[in-house]
Amino acid sequence: MNAEIIVTGDEILSGRILDTNSQWLSVRLESMGIRVLYHTAVGDELEAIAQVFRIAFDRADVVISTGGLGPTEDDLTREGLAEAVGRPLREDPEVLEYLRDLFARRNRPFTEAHRKQARFPEGSRPIPNYFGTAPGVAMELPRPGRGPAYVFCLPGVPAEMREMWNNSVQSMVLQVSGGGTVIVHRSINTFGRPESEVEGMLKEIFARGTNPRVGINASEGTIILRIAATGKSEEECRQLMEPVVRKIYDTLGDLVFGENEEGLQHAVINLLRKHQKRLAVVEWGTSGLVASWLGEVPERAPYFAGAWVVSGIESLATILGMPPDVAAQQDLRQPRIVEAMAARCRDAFGSDFALAVGPFPQDTPYKDAPGRLLLAIASPEGLRSRQVGLAGHPAIMKPLAAKHALNFLRLHLLGRV
Questions:
Q1: Which end of the chain, N or C, is surrounded by fewer C-beta atoms within 10 Å?
Q2: Domain 182-259 of CATH type 3.30.1780.10
Q3: Hey, where are the domains in the chain?
Q4: Each residue of 208-228: pLDDT tens digit?
Q5: Which pLDDT score, from 0 to 100, does residue 132 have?
Q6: Cα separation of 127 and 113, whole Å?
Q7: Model pTM?
Q8: Exposure pattern of 377-409 as b/e (b: 16+ CB <10 Å)?
Q9: Which class in CATH covers the domain with range 264-413?
Q10: Segments of the chain with pLDDT less than 70
């Protein structure tokens, strides 16, 4: 089966509110073996809502909407659904009585506006909402020549929507889908080559219409290979994935640093733990981002000694032990300077390794210089430095530089550089 998720509300389309409901529902539908093919957002206009429902019923087996079930004039999901299927709204006496009692228990006045929440398209049934005042709607729609479409309308308030899903709708969807398939996802994270090159190295695995499906996307220099397998069980899905996963690892080698939510910082901490070594960091161009990422890894404590953040030439001069006026007269974008930063940091923290991130164009005195980043590692074997070219939108320069720094250290710990 496939699914479409519809979110209603002018506040979504205007960008004032972020739609988190669609993402949350997609994860749960996919885990049930229902592939989500469409996300649709629609404003608070009756005919527009009716139109997106008509389109959804034609192309999706399961349609889930969120929002538009409240008592106000712009809550039009019930009316839009009724318009789409050509059926009138009918008042449900039991729901009306429940709402009257609910408002009385909460010492709130029950108005005519709230009465609309007890009206449902003919042939549908209410879905209880134990955490709010807006019941949901469930409906089965026959489609000539094929199976029916199933629609479930849920509140837009995330907490209410999730409780309604967990308490009622999930079991309803499982019942209509038969629960015969599952979809398992796995992501493999790489760094060091652009997206086009990675795709070119693995062309054969991206064929459409295959099981598993493989997609690729980039996020601030990280290239992510996303694998989705469909099968009768999680074990079957994992077996289907295995040849593709093996092909990725065999082809990309050290470009792969982790899976799923693992970042380069996790890979570095894991290698430090494997070798039982400690790391210190000194950063200029990345303004403490490397240290911040390392600090988020739960297992970091025995392996991350600490960090210095260089805010400018004066603080760098203090680290290097030279007068600020002397430092100001030098071009500090030299490998020897960054190597000296690493050596001083390692000595000060008493760590096995120190990673130094030099200045790069953006918020340093070298804004107008070409995009290059200097990195250095101090270790028991001595000093090693590297120059990395940086290119891209200014918004991703710091994260990209921090990833280059962590990747340089990762490869060093692997014995590759």
A1: C
A2: no
A3: 2-177, 182-259, 264-413
A4: 889 999 999 999 999 999 999
A5: 86
A6: 20
A7: 0.79
A8: bbbeeebbbbebebeeeeeebbbbbbbbbbbbb
A9: alpha beta
A10: 361-370
